[in-house]
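Quick start: read one record
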Amino acid sequence: MFAWFIRHLQTLVGSLGELSRNPFSTILSVSVIAIALALPGGLFAALENINKFTDEFEHGAKISLFLSPEININEAKSLQTKLLNHQSIKHIELITPEQAMEEFKSRSGLEDALNSLTKNPLPVVLLAFPEEETARSPAKLADLINELGKLEQVELSQFDLEWIKRLTALLELITRAVWVIAFILGLGVFLVIGNTIRLAITNHQEEIRIIKLIGGTDAFIRRSFLYSGMLQGLIGGLIAILIIFILFSIISTPTSSLSSMYGITFNLDPLQFLPSLVLICSGALTGWLSARVTVGVYLRQFEPGKSNI
């Protein structure tokens, strides 16, 4: 076991040395890999920020239940207690006509005109906050709105459902687009590393020929190229994380300033630890697979009597 570990460690160090002996080509290929990985990684980070932003709206999503004018406070409180036991409702708030009038005065700027009214025309309002699972599903939310609207004490149930439907559809479209882009650019990384490995095989074809003639196995020949491909993908993934972090750091302050103008607190976060780890491992795995496929193809074509691989 120790000997196996030493052999692989020697191969790993040798692959690093091989990459360092060709700095220009290594930097070029790793830069292409990093940019190809940074684009889907950055889009995924942006999508995570959008989801975080929309979660704040979903937490604040509420259904306004305007009760009939003849419903008094005690009856409204009884309905509030009943609705608290509903499996799709997380919380219920009761707003009295007096509270609603005070809020309307402060927001409308018509305090003098409203003070001249002899009777408060506003009804008792219940604000129903749905559970997160219901708030995230336009279908479940629509069913809940219809159910609450049919209650005898409720005169009108109100909730802007259209923007939830549009937002859900948009997020689904963006998510699929990110996966498609990630697949296409991942294929590009696969081909870039494969081409680099192909050139390395061409440069070492005489060495490979001698190793084959003296009985060297395909696994022994393949090992250094596998480490080379894996290292290129790994380094490219690390640089991609750095690129994403720098870009998000640059636009974070303007984003926070813009959101504050609309009365919203929104901090732009870079790629989190787990997605970053997945991106780095994906780069390394793609490099390993690309090298394995490329070397496998060339080794199958190899015959000691031929002049080229």
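The domain at 62-158 is CATH 3.30.70.3040 (Alpha-Beta Plaits).
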